[in-house]
Amino acid sequence: MKLQTLFQVTAVASALALAGCGGDIEISPTVNDNSVVNNGSGGSSGGDTTADNLCATNNGVQGAFDGRDCEYNLEFASRNIEITEDITFAELPDGGVHVFDGALLIGEDCDTTTSCTINQDGPVMTVEPGATLAFTSGEAIIRVARGAKLNAIGTFDKPVTFTSANAFTRFDVVGNGPRFADWGGIIINGEGITNQCTDAQRDAGTCNVASEGIVSYYGGNDNADDSGSMKYAKIWYAGSGPRAGGDGDDLNSLTLNAVGSGSSYEFIHIHQGYDDGIEFFGGAADVKRVVFTDTQDDSMDIDAGWQGNAQFLYIKHGTVNVDGTDVYMGNGGFEADGEKNSGAEYSQAPTSRPNIANVTVVTTDGLSTRDNDPSTAMKFDDNFQGQLYNFLLVKTDVATNDTRCILFTGDGELGVTDGDLNFFNSAMACVAENEFTSADLFANGTSRQAWFDNSGVNARLGGNATVFGTDGFATDMSSSDITVTANDLSALGNSFFEAVDYIGAVSSTDTSSEWYQWVETALAAAEQD
């Protein structure tokens, strides 16, 4: 059958390309039945438009339906085809999957210094509850242009899934299973404010920042921009290592390029991405209830003036099995950078200054398989400023590899010395807290320990503290080792934040909530990997 033949070719090519990574990832997150039912309605993309073909259509070209799965070849979508009409991917029965060979480019990319104009009423890509989209190539991405939207809204019982085709044994002919960098991830380009553009460029409508990884353009002057939203969604096995531009020119699991506050991202599970989990380049998009497991680089990478809010983030570094060997995943829980540029000509675009609350970061003492960098809970750089509430940072492993809970690099100390970077009602349960002793001071004369302690508002508990309940992941506020009280967040005066009585991302007394179960399910899936 054509679908099987296609994947014999693409899977072998993918395996050869990834031979340097090697190894088996021993998890299949969804259906693993090799059987295929052909009801006669299959054929090449664009061939079958009968009533029982459940595949999406783009500009008259329809995916090929084999009775279970939808195949979309390069005639349907690729790096050379931009989708300019609304498109919907529905849940397929019997565990069916929408499978793509190439990139899904939603909307027309535009560099406004040329003759094009951004279509402010661009196409909307809708992914319905229970739908699974799988990709066969590291070059396959979802790219949403300025003016277009991606709405991927699942339900708790029927989440939306974006994953590797190798997560399904009927497609994984080579048999290596799914792994990081199997596909490129999701890039959303907004018209929000980023300090990668000058004030003059924004005023003239010529703010066009080239995105990392695969070039497309983002940026503008509207931090209320709406590029669509995601809820109850899984993004697994995405991203890439450095590409043509070298270090930093990467594909993330989810890239939010100057996406504004009209968009939101809630109940997301990002697993085993090969670069960052979510990377923000400016904008003001909000995120809530996100789990990051085994992301290779940074889980939350903040840059270029992000002004959004975040609450309930669970980050866990761990290992994956490659060639029978467990290798470490994870650099920074957070890489928090403030600005790409500063000065008078960037006055409209301040440094990153989010409010973030209720975060758990669990690190290891491992050096990452990608770049041999250490596992660190928080890295601050480039004048990052932020108000951080109810954080719980955990490192129980003996720090033989110089892995620390908090690391300052470059001009990361500027936020501290200017009084604009602070923890509140937070705890470090870390064998190694930061890279300096109490005798080492910031430029304003404050020691690192005194800065974190914040006059007793926060606490350093040590690596042997008991902070989790019997489930091993939710904060046990009844533990005698936890000596701080939670901030209920009411003083923030921000309706985004929900009132809490615990530090960290999830409470051990909240086992019936969807959020507790979302975290529990995500961690269990990662543990199998």
Secondary structure elements and their pairing?
Layout: H1 2-17, E1 57-58, E2 61-62, E3 64-65, E4 70-72, E5 82-83, E6 87-89, E7 98-100, E8 104-106, E9 124-127, E10 132-135, E11 141-144, E12 149-153, E13 160-164, E14 185-189, H2 199-204, E15 209-210, E16 217-218, E17 230-236, E18 254-257, E19 264-271, E20 278-281, E21 286-293, E22 300-303, E23 309-316, E24 318-322, E25 325-329, E26 332-337, E27 355-362, E28 376-381, E29 386-395, E30 406-408, H3 414-417, E31 421-424, E32 427-430, H4 448-453, E33 459-460, H5 514-528
Parallel strand pairs: 4-7, 5-8, 6-9, 7-10, 8-11, 9-12, 10-13, 11-14, 12-17, 13-17, 14-18, 17-19, 18-20, 19-21, 20-22, 21-23, 22-26, 23-27, 26-28, 27-29, 28-30, 29-31, 29-32, 32-33
Antiparallel strand pairs: 1-2, 3-4, 15-16, 24-25
Question: Could you characterize what this model shows?
Answer:
By secondary structure, the protein is mainly β. The protein has one domain (68-463): 3 Solenoid (Pectate Lyase C-like), CATH 2.160.20. The chain has 5 helices and 33 strands. The chain has helices at residues 2-17, 199-204, 414-417, 448-453, 514-528; strands at residues 57-58, 61-62, 64-65, 70-72, 82-83, 87-89, 98-100, 104-106, 124-127, 132-135, 141-144, 149-153, 160-164, 185-189, 209-210, 217-218, 230-236, 254-257, 264-271, 278-281, 286-293, 300-303, 309-316, 318-322, 325-329, 332-337, 355-362, 376-381, 386-395, 406-408, 421-424, 427-430, 459-460. The strands form 5 sheets. It has a 17-stranded mixed beta sheet that branches. The protein has a 10-stranded parallel beta sheet with strand order 5-8-11-14-18-20-22-26-28-30, with no helix packed on it. A two-stranded antiparallel ribbon has the order 1-2. The protein starts with a helix and ends with a helix. The relative contact order is 0.09. The model is unreliable at 1-49 (pLDDT under 50).
